[in-house]
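Request from the bench team (R.T.):
"We need a structural guess for the complex before ordering more pyridoxal-5'-phosphate. Sequence and SMILES attached. Just send the C-alpha coordinates back."

Command: build protein-pyridoxal-5'-phosphate structure.
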Amino acid sequence: MFNIQDISPEALCKKYGTPLYVYDSQRIIDNYTRFTESFQVKKLKVHYACKALSNVTILQLFNSLGSGLDCVSIQEVELGLMAGFSPNDIVFTPNNISEMEYNEVVKKGVTINVDNMNMLEYMGMNHPNIPLFIRINPHLMAGGNSKISTGHIDSKFGISIHQVPNVKRIVDRLNINIAGIHVHTGSDILDSDVFIHAAELIFSVVEQFDTVQHIDFGSGFKVKYHQDDLHTEIESFGFHFSKAFNAFCTKMGKEYTLQFEPGKFMVSDAGYFFANANLVKQTTSCTFVGLDSGFNHFVRPMFYDAYHEIENVSNPEGDKKIYTIVGNICETDTFGADRILNEVRKNDIIMFRNAGAYCFTMASNYNSRFRPAEVLIHNRQDYMITKRESLKDLVKNQVMPEIDEILKPV
Ligand SMILES: *Cc1c(COP(=O)(O)O)cnc(C)c1O
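Reply to R.T.: structure attached below.
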Protein backbone atom coordinates (compact mmCIF):
# COMPACT_ATOMS: atom_id res chain seq x y z
CA MET A 1 0.00 0.00 0.00
CA PHE A 2 1.51 3.34 -1.03
CA ASN A 3 1.64 5.94 1.76
CA ILE A 4 3.25 9.33 2.28
CA GLN A 5 4.71 9.47 5.80
CA ASP A 6 2.15 6.77 6.78
CA ILE A 7 -0.78 8.73 5.40
CA SER A 8 -2.83 7.08 2.69
CA PRO A 9 -3.49 9.07 -0.48
CA GLU A 10 -7.07 7.86 -0.54
CA ALA A 11 -7.68 9.35 2.90
CA LEU A 12 -6.15 12.64 1.76
CA CYS A 13 -8.29 12.69 -1.38
CA LYS A 14 -11.38 11.99 0.70
CA LYS A 15 -10.51 14.81 3.07
CA TYR A 16 -9.42 17.46 0.56
CA GLY A 17 -11.06 16.31 -2.67
CA THR A 18 -9.44 15.84 -6.07
CA PRO A 19 -7.47 16.87 -8.01
CA LEU A 20 -4.90 17.34 -5.27
CA TYR A 21 -1.20 18.10 -4.95
CA VAL A 22 0.58 16.53 -1.96
CA TYR A 23 4.18 17.24 -0.90
CA ASP A 24 6.37 15.21 1.43
CA SER A 25 8.45 17.57 3.60
CA GLN A 26 10.84 14.79 4.61
CA ARG A 27 11.78 14.20 0.98
CA ILE A 28 12.52 17.90 0.51
CA ILE A 29 14.68 17.90 3.65
CA ASP A 30 16.50 14.75 2.48
CA ASN A 31 17.08 16.23 -0.99
CA TYR A 32 18.46 19.44 0.47
CA THR A 33 20.75 17.56 2.86
CA ARG A 34 21.92 15.16 0.19
CA PHE A 35 22.70 18.05 -2.13
CA THR A 36 24.64 20.14 0.36
CA GLU A 37 26.56 17.13 1.70
CA SER A 38 27.73 16.27 -1.81
CA PHE A 39 30.09 19.25 -1.96
CA GLN A 40 33.33 19.44 -0.03
CA VAL A 41 34.15 23.13 -0.22
CA LYS A 42 34.79 25.80 2.43
CA LYS A 43 31.82 27.98 1.48
CA LEU A 44 28.68 26.64 -0.15
CA LYS A 45 25.36 28.39 -0.62
CA VAL A 46 22.25 26.90 -2.18
CA HIS A 47 19.52 29.17 -3.45
CA TYR A 48 16.38 27.13 -4.04
CA ALA A 49 14.85 28.15 -7.40
CA CYS A 50 11.38 28.98 -6.23
CA LYS A 51 9.66 28.98 -9.60
CA ALA A 52 9.62 25.17 -9.30
CA LEU A 53 7.22 25.28 -6.33
CA SER A 54 6.55 28.64 -4.78
CA ASN A 55 4.03 28.06 -2.02
CA VAL A 56 5.02 30.23 0.95
CA THR A 57 4.98 27.31 3.40
CA ILE A 58 7.39 25.43 1.13
CA LEU A 59 9.59 28.53 1.03
CA GLN A 60 9.51 28.69 4.84
CA LEU A 61 10.68 25.09 4.93
CA PHE A 62 13.67 26.00 2.72
CA ASN A 63 14.40 29.02 4.88
CA SER A 64 14.43 26.81 7.97
CA LEU A 65 16.96 24.52 6.27
CA GLY A 66 19.37 27.42 5.72
CA SER A 67 18.75 27.66 1.99
CA GLY A 68 18.67 30.95 0.12
CA LEU A 69 16.22 31.69 -2.66
CA ASP A 70 16.58 32.21 -6.41
CA CYS A 71 13.86 34.44 -7.80
CA VAL A 72 13.01 35.37 -11.37
CA SER A 73 10.33 38.00 -10.74
CA ILE A 74 9.70 40.70 -8.18
CA GLN A 75 6.65 38.74 -7.10
CA GLU A 76 8.83 35.75 -6.23
CA VAL A 77 11.05 38.13 -4.26
CA GLU A 78 7.97 39.33 -2.35
CA LEU A 79 6.94 35.74 -1.63
CA GLY A 80 10.45 35.01 -0.35
CA LEU A 81 10.39 38.02 1.96
CA MET A 82 6.93 36.96 3.13
CA ALA A 83 8.37 33.54 3.96
CA GLY A 84 11.01 35.20 6.13
CA PHE A 85 14.08 35.10 3.91
CA SER A 86 16.56 37.84 4.55
CA PRO A 87 17.11 39.98 1.43
CA ASN A 88 20.79 38.94 1.59
CA ASP A 89 19.73 35.37 0.99
CA ILE A 90 17.78 36.16 -2.17
CA VAL A 91 19.30 36.29 -5.65
CA PHE A 92 17.24 37.91 -8.36
CA THR A 93 17.89 36.41 -11.82
CA PRO A 94 15.30 37.81 -14.20
CA ASN A 95 15.44 38.34 -17.93
CA ASN A 96 13.92 41.05 -20.11
CA ILE A 97 12.41 42.98 -17.24
CA SER A 98 11.89 46.72 -17.02
CA GLU A 99 14.18 49.22 -15.31
CA MET A 100 11.29 49.88 -12.96
CA GLU A 101 11.28 46.29 -11.75
CA TYR A 102 15.07 46.38 -11.22
CA ASN A 103 14.70 49.60 -9.22
CA GLU A 104 11.98 48.09 -7.02
CA VAL A 105 14.07 45.01 -6.31
CA VAL A 106 17.15 47.13 -5.55
CA LYS A 107 15.10 48.90 -2.86
CA LYS A 108 14.46 45.56 -1.20
CA GLY A 109 18.16 44.90 -0.78
CA VAL A 110 18.17 41.71 -2.80
CA THR A 111 21.24 40.62 -4.82
CA ILE A 112 20.77 41.44 -8.48
CA ASN A 113 22.04 39.21 -11.23
CA VAL A 114 22.40 41.28 -14.40
CA ASP A 115 21.43 39.52 -17.60
CA ASN A 116 22.40 42.00 -20.33
CA MET A 117 24.82 44.84 -21.14
CA ASN A 118 22.21 47.59 -21.21
CA MET A 119 21.17 46.75 -17.70
CA LEU A 120 24.76 46.61 -16.56
CA GLU A 121 25.28 50.17 -17.77
CA TYR A 122 21.96 51.25 -16.32
CA MET A 123 22.73 49.72 -12.92
CA GLY A 124 26.22 51.16 -12.90
CA MET A 125 24.92 54.66 -13.66
CA ASN A 126 21.89 54.59 -11.36
CA HIS A 127 22.90 52.34 -8.48
CA PRO A 128 26.67 52.76 -8.43
CA ASN A 129 27.25 51.30 -4.99
CA ILE A 130 25.47 47.99 -5.02
CA PRO A 131 27.34 44.76 -5.66
CA LEU A 132 26.11 42.93 -8.75
CA PHE A 133 26.23 39.46 -10.17
CA ILE A 134 26.51 39.06 -13.92
CA ARG A 135 24.99 36.17 -15.78
CA ILE A 136 27.32 34.78 -18.41
CA ASN A 137 26.17 32.73 -21.38
CA PRO A 138 29.00 30.26 -22.10
CA HIS A 139 27.27 29.00 -25.29
CA LEU A 140 27.20 25.40 -24.29
CA MET A 141 24.43 23.32 -25.79
CA ALA A 142 22.92 21.53 -22.88
CA GLY A 143 19.49 20.57 -21.71
CA GLY A 144 16.99 17.95 -22.71
CA ASN A 145 14.41 20.26 -24.23
CA SER A 146 14.79 23.39 -26.35
CA LYS A 147 12.18 25.22 -24.25
CA ILE A 148 14.29 24.89 -21.14
CA SER A 149 17.77 24.97 -22.59
CA THR A 150 19.25 28.33 -21.74
CA GLY A 151 23.00 28.34 -22.40
CA HIS A 152 23.41 27.74 -26.14
CA ILE A 153 24.45 30.21 -28.80
CA ASP A 154 21.02 31.58 -29.73
CA SER A 155 19.74 31.67 -26.19
CA LYS A 156 18.14 34.89 -24.98
CA PHE A 157 19.76 34.47 -21.56
CA GLY A 158 22.82 36.13 -20.16
CA ILE A 159 25.74 38.14 -21.47
CA SER A 160 27.81 36.30 -24.04
CA ILE A 161 31.16 35.12 -22.77
CA HIS A 162 32.60 36.77 -25.89
CA GLN A 163 31.41 40.14 -24.60
CA VAL A 164 33.40 39.96 -21.38
CA PRO A 165 35.98 42.53 -22.63
CA ASN A 166 33.09 44.95 -23.14
CA VAL A 167 31.71 44.10 -19.68
CA LYS A 168 35.10 44.79 -18.21
CA ARG A 169 35.29 48.17 -19.92
CA ILE A 170 31.89 49.21 -18.49
CA VAL A 171 32.74 47.84 -15.05
CA ASP A 172 36.05 49.73 -14.94
CA ARG A 173 34.58 52.96 -16.27
CA LEU A 174 31.68 52.96 -13.78
CA ASN A 175 33.58 51.35 -10.93
CA ILE A 176 30.98 48.60 -10.56
CA ASN A 177 31.45 46.01 -7.84
CA ILE A 178 31.01 42.63 -9.54
CA ALA A 179 30.43 40.40 -6.53
CA GLY A 180 29.45 37.30 -8.40
CA ILE A 181 29.68 35.51 -11.71
CA HIS A 182 26.69 33.39 -12.60
CA VAL A 183 25.97 30.78 -15.22
CA HIS A 184 22.86 28.68 -15.69
CA THR A 185 23.25 26.45 -18.72
CA GLY A 186 19.76 24.98 -18.72
CA SER A 187 17.60 22.37 -17.14
CA ASP A 188 17.96 18.63 -17.58
CA ILE A 189 21.72 18.32 -17.98
CA LEU A 190 22.61 14.68 -18.27
CA ASP A 191 26.31 14.97 -18.25
CA SER A 192 28.35 16.34 -15.36
CA ASP A 193 31.27 16.94 -17.75
CA VAL A 194 29.21 19.81 -19.17
CA PHE A 195 29.33 21.45 -15.77
CA ILE A 196 33.05 21.04 -15.37
CA HIS A 197 33.57 22.42 -18.87
CA ALA A 198 31.31 25.40 -18.12
CA ALA A 199 33.18 25.88 -14.86
CA GLU A 200 36.50 26.26 -16.62
CA LEU A 201 35.09 28.90 -18.93
CA ILE A 202 33.55 30.69 -15.97
CA PHE A 203 36.76 30.54 -13.95
CA SER A 204 38.48 32.34 -16.80
CA VAL A 205 35.88 35.11 -16.47
CA VAL A 206 36.20 35.25 -12.67
CA GLU A 207 39.94 35.77 -13.02
CA GLN A 208 39.27 39.07 -14.74
CA PHE A 209 37.26 40.63 -11.88
CA ASP A 210 39.07 40.82 -8.57
CA THR A 211 35.93 41.93 -6.68
CA VAL A 212 34.23 38.57 -7.24
CA GLN A 213 33.34 36.62 -4.06
CA HIS A 214 30.67 34.23 -5.34
CA ILE A 215 30.60 31.84 -8.27
CA ASP A 216 27.11 30.64 -9.05
CA PHE A 217 26.62 27.67 -11.35
CA GLY A 218 22.83 27.83 -11.51
CA SER A 219 21.18 24.49 -11.96
CA GLY A 220 20.36 21.82 -14.50
CA PHE A 221 20.47 18.84 -12.16
CA LYS A 222 18.48 16.09 -13.76
CA VAL A 223 16.21 13.85 -11.72
CA LYS A 224 14.64 10.52 -12.63
CA TYR A 225 11.14 10.63 -14.01
CA HIS A 226 11.31 7.13 -15.45
CA GLN A 227 13.19 4.31 -13.72
CA ASP A 228 15.52 4.01 -16.72
CA ASP A 229 16.24 7.76 -16.91
CA LEU A 230 19.75 9.03 -16.63
CA HIS A 231 20.08 11.49 -13.78
CA THR A 232 22.73 13.60 -12.11
CA GLU A 233 24.61 11.44 -9.62
CA ILE A 234 24.92 14.26 -7.17
CA GLU A 235 27.49 12.68 -4.83
CA SER A 236 29.88 11.88 -7.64
CA PHE A 237 29.24 15.19 -9.38
CA GLY A 238 29.82 17.04 -6.10
CA PHE A 239 33.05 15.19 -5.53
CA HIS A 240 34.51 16.02 -8.95
CA PHE A 241 33.16 19.51 -9.03
CA SER A 242 34.46 20.35 -5.55
CA LYS A 243 37.93 19.27 -6.63
CA ALA A 244 37.87 21.58 -9.64
CA PHE A 245 36.46 24.41 -7.53
CA ASN A 246 38.97 24.00 -4.69
CA ALA A 247 41.82 23.89 -7.18
CA PHE A 248 40.65 27.20 -8.61
CA CYS A 249 40.41 28.76 -5.12
CA THR A 250 43.94 27.59 -4.38
CA LYS A 251 45.20 28.96 -7.68
CA MET A 252 43.64 32.34 -6.95
CA GLY A 253 44.55 32.30 -3.25
CA LYS A 254 40.96 33.16 -2.38
CA GLU A 255 37.96 31.40 -0.80
CA TYR A 256 35.08 31.93 -3.19
CA THR A 257 31.56 30.89 -2.23
CA LEU A 258 30.29 28.10 -4.45
CA GLN A 259 26.62 28.62 -5.26
CA PHE A 260 23.90 26.59 -6.95
CA GLU A 261 20.22 27.16 -7.66
CA PRO A 262 18.49 23.81 -7.84
CA GLY A 263 14.71 23.77 -8.21
CA LYS A 264 13.70 20.44 -9.66
CA PHE A 265 16.28 18.47 -7.67
CA MET A 266 14.83 19.75 -4.40
CA VAL A 267 11.13 19.27 -4.95
CA SER A 268 10.33 17.13 -7.99
CA ASP A 269 10.16 13.75 -6.28
CA ALA A 270 8.63 15.23 -3.13
CA GLY A 271 5.39 15.97 -4.96
CA TYR A 272 2.45 13.78 -5.94
CA PHE A 273 -0.59 14.66 -7.96
CA PHE A 274 -3.85 12.81 -7.43
CA ALA A 275 -6.89 12.80 -9.69
CA ASN A 276 -10.11 10.85 -9.76
CA ALA A 277 -10.90 8.38 -12.55
CA ASN A 278 -14.27 9.68 -13.71
CA LEU A 279 -14.61 7.31 -16.62
CA VAL A 280 -13.05 4.18 -18.02
CA LYS A 281 -13.91 4.09 -21.70
CA GLN A 282 -13.21 1.38 -24.24
CA THR A 283 -12.79 2.51 -27.83
CA THR A 284 -11.80 0.59 -30.93
CA SER A 285 -8.16 1.55 -30.44
CA CYS A 286 -7.57 1.70 -26.70
CA THR A 287 -9.00 1.97 -23.22
CA PHE A 288 -9.09 5.51 -21.90
CA VAL A 289 -9.05 6.55 -18.27
CA GLY A 290 -10.67 9.98 -18.08
CA LEU A 291 -9.60 12.05 -15.08
CA ASP A 292 -11.19 14.98 -13.27
CA SER A 293 -8.20 17.12 -14.29
CA GLY A 294 -6.25 18.10 -17.40
CA PHE A 295 -3.36 20.17 -18.70
CA ASN A 296 -4.80 23.14 -16.86
CA HIS A 297 -3.55 21.49 -13.66
CA PHE A 298 -0.61 19.45 -14.84
CA VAL A 299 0.90 20.54 -18.13
CA ARG A 300 4.36 18.97 -18.24
CA PRO A 301 3.34 15.86 -20.23
CA MET A 302 1.70 18.00 -22.93
CA PHE A 303 4.04 21.02 -22.89
CA TYR A 304 7.40 19.29 -22.57
CA ASP A 305 6.47 15.72 -23.53
CA ALA A 306 7.49 14.90 -19.99
CA TYR A 307 7.09 11.37 -18.74
CA HIS A 308 5.50 10.98 -15.30
CA GLU A 309 4.89 7.64 -13.62
CA ILE A 310 1.17 6.99 -13.26
CA GLU A 311 -0.28 4.51 -10.77
CA ASN A 312 -3.67 3.43 -9.54
CA VAL A 313 -3.43 3.73 -5.75
CA SER A 314 -6.97 2.46 -5.16
CA ASN A 315 -6.47 -1.03 -6.54
CA PRO A 316 -2.88 -2.07 -5.87
CA GLU A 317 -3.69 -5.78 -6.23
CA GLY A 318 -5.75 -5.37 -9.41
CA ASP A 319 -4.82 -7.10 -12.68
CA LYS A 320 -2.39 -5.16 -14.85
CA LYS A 321 -4.02 -3.58 -17.87
CA ILE A 322 -3.06 -1.10 -20.57
CA TYR A 323 -4.60 2.35 -20.49
CA THR A 324 -4.26 5.75 -22.06
CA ILE A 325 -4.75 8.36 -19.33
CA VAL A 326 -6.41 11.56 -20.47
CA GLY A 327 -7.82 14.74 -18.98
CA ASN A 328 -11.14 16.51 -19.16
CA ILE A 329 -10.06 19.58 -21.12
CA CYS A 330 -11.85 20.15 -24.42
CA GLU A 331 -8.68 19.54 -26.39
CA THR A 332 -6.42 16.54 -26.60
CA ASP A 333 -4.73 16.29 -23.24
CA THR A 334 -2.97 13.00 -22.80
CA PHE A 335 -1.09 12.39 -19.56
CA GLY A 336 0.27 9.06 -20.71
CA ALA A 337 -0.41 6.62 -23.55
CA ASP A 338 -0.29 2.83 -23.28
CA ARG A 339 0.55 2.78 -19.59
CA ILE A 340 0.29 -0.37 -17.54
CA LEU A 341 -1.78 0.19 -14.41
CA ASN A 342 -3.59 -2.05 -11.96
CA GLU A 343 -7.15 -2.34 -13.20
CA VAL A 344 -8.85 1.05 -13.05
CA ARG A 345 -12.43 1.24 -11.86
CA LYS A 346 -14.67 4.28 -11.80
CA ASN A 347 -13.65 6.64 -8.95
CA ASP A 348 -10.26 5.05 -8.36
CA ILE A 349 -7.54 7.52 -7.35
CA ILE A 350 -4.81 7.92 -9.98
CA MET A 351 -1.41 9.11 -8.81
CA PHE A 352 1.33 10.95 -10.73
CA ARG A 353 4.87 10.94 -9.41
CA ASN A 354 7.44 13.74 -9.63
CA ALA A 355 4.71 16.33 -9.36
CA GLY A 356 6.63 18.69 -7.08
CA ALA A 357 8.46 20.84 -9.63
CA TYR A 358 6.83 22.95 -12.35
CA CYS A 359 3.43 21.39 -11.83
CA PHE A 360 1.25 23.45 -9.51
CA THR A 361 3.21 26.59 -10.39
CA MET A 362 2.27 26.12 -14.05
CA ALA A 363 -1.41 25.41 -13.36
CA SER A 364 -4.07 27.64 -14.89
CA ASN A 365 -7.81 28.14 -14.86
CA TYR A 366 -8.27 27.09 -18.48
CA ASN A 367 -11.81 25.83 -19.10
CA SER A 368 -12.73 27.93 -16.06
CA ARG A 369 -11.87 25.17 -13.67
CA PHE A 370 -10.51 25.73 -10.19
CA ARG A 371 -6.86 25.08 -9.53
CA PRO A 372 -6.24 22.15 -7.17
CA ALA A 373 -5.60 22.33 -3.45
CA GLU A 374 -2.08 21.69 -2.08
CA VAL A 375 -1.27 19.71 1.03
CA LEU A 376 2.04 19.37 2.86
CA ILE A 377 2.79 16.28 4.91
CA HIS A 378 5.11 17.18 7.76
CA ASN A 379 5.93 15.08 10.82
CA ARG A 380 3.20 12.64 9.77
CA GLN A 381 0.55 15.36 9.80
CA ASP A 382 -1.28 16.74 6.78
CA TYR A 383 -1.57 20.50 6.40
CA MET A 384 -3.53 22.25 3.69
CA ILE A 385 -1.22 24.93 2.25
CA THR A 386 -3.43 26.07 -0.64
CA LYS A 387 -7.21 25.93 -0.64
CA ARG A 388 -9.05 24.74 -3.69
CA GLU A 389 -10.38 27.72 -5.59
CA SER A 390 -14.01 28.68 -5.83
CA LEU A 391 -16.15 30.54 -8.36
CA LYS A 392 -15.36 33.74 -6.46
CA ASP A 393 -11.66 33.32 -7.26
CA LEU A 394 -12.40 32.91 -10.95
CA VAL A 395 -14.15 36.27 -11.18
CA LYS A 396 -12.43 38.22 -8.42
CA ASN A 397 -10.57 40.48 -10.86
CA GLN A 398 -13.29 40.71 -13.44
CA VAL A 399 -15.02 44.06 -13.67
CA MET A 400 -18.50 44.22 -15.09
CA PRO A 401 -18.99 47.73 -16.42
CA GLU A 402 -22.44 49.10 -16.97
CA ILE A 403 -22.81 48.77 -20.68
CA ASP A 404 -26.40 47.56 -20.74
CA GLU A 405 -27.07 48.66 -24.26
CA ILE A 406 -24.28 46.42 -25.52
CA LEU A 407 -25.17 43.44 -23.40
CA LYS A 408 -28.97 43.50 -23.85
CA PRO A 409 -30.31 40.90 -26.23
CA VAL A 410 -31.65 42.44 -29.44
C1 LIG B 1 14.73 27.76 -13.44
C2 LIG B 1 16.03 28.18 -12.95
C3 LIG B 1 16.75 27.37 -12.08
C4 LIG B 1 16.26 26.01 -11.62
O1 LIG B 1 16.33 25.01 -12.59
P1 LIG B 1 15.98 23.50 -12.21
O2 LIG B 1 16.15 22.74 -13.45
O3 LIG B 1 14.57 23.46 -11.70
O4 LIG B 1 16.89 23.06 -11.13
C5 LIG B 1 17.94 27.85 -11.59
N1 LIG B 1 18.42 29.07 -11.96
C6 LIG B 1 17.74 29.88 -12.80
C7 LIG B 1 18.31 31.20 -13.16
C8 LIG B 1 16.54 29.46 -13.33
O5 LIG B 1 15.89 30.26 -14.19
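Two things stood out. The chain has a mean pLDDT of 93. Residues 268-395 form a domain with the Lyase, Ornithine Decarboxylase; Chain A, domain 1 fold (CATH 2.40.37.10).
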